[in-house]
Amino acid sequence: MNLNYLRIFYEVAKNKSFSRAAHKLHITQPAVSIQIKRFEKALGFRLIDKIGRELELTEVGEVLYGYAEEIFRLVEEAREAMEDARHLKWGSLRLGTTKALAQHFMSTVVAAFQDRYPNITVHLDEGSSEEMVEGVLRHRFEVAITGRVHYPQNLKVLPLARNEVFLTVSARCELPSHEDGRIPLEFIKDKPVILREKGSCTRKVTEEAFRRLGFRPAAIIEASNTDFIKDMVSRGKAISFLTRLVIERDVMEGRLRLLRLKEGRFFVNVDLIYLDGKTLSPPAAAFKALL
Hints:
There is one protein chain. The protein is of the alpha/beta class. The protein folds into three domains: 3-86, Winged helix-like DNA-binding domain superfamily/Winged helix DNA-binding domain (Arc Repressor Mutant, subunit A); 92-160 and 270-290, 3-Layer(aba) Sandwich (D-Maltodextrin-Binding Protein, domain 2); 164-268, D-Maltodextrin-Binding Protein, domain 2. The chain contains eleven helices and twelve strands. Strands 3, 4, 5, 6, 7, 8, 9, 10, 11 and 12 form a ten-stranded mixed β-sheet that branches. The longest helix has 28 residues, at 59-86. The protein is rod-shaped and about 105 Å long.
């Protein structure tokens, strides 16, 4: 069935006039008449009778008009839904991030997004950096903000930030350091080190630095909870390597102390990742633009 013919028939039947239908459709009245005749010929039924000066639908025309009303009501609904999608009046954002970023960064970003787009539902999941990569690949979330690890080639990567990793000790720690806050590795060789869980970007970067510098900690404690790590360090039970983002408040409040290694500095890169070749939903595209 030719939907263009159906639209013309619908406007004629609705307005009970060829001229008013022509005006609504921005075409000439003869063009309306010609296409109605073609439509009737294609269907094999007469749809409209002209009795005197009045137009009346035939029985078949009445049935078809009922269907046409429903069809074009749905078309209008679809048009409005697409317009609302364009202006982000509905939709959802499936977002993943690391545990540390969820605790110390994402609330600010998500709050700013929801202030701008209050009708969008945000689903936030958290895990290690490697779990973020896996989650995007398996479509558990559309975009993820994560510390940089090894990425497969089918991911798009938008660099966001570069965070320095610091040697983190208790504020009461008596480790000597240079005036600029640097400390030789040999001064911590007998200290237990508490690291993030496997799959964490911070742990990956720290262990790479250890291998590069030929350093083997006396003992390694593994934990996935940042608050637990900071508590252990503040009690003087271990030292750790964390980014300033995670520990800045604790430093300001006098619980922890930041030091740099004399042997060099190292960093965690934070990226937005999503599948290459995938068209981002309007909420995901807006979130990416916000960053």
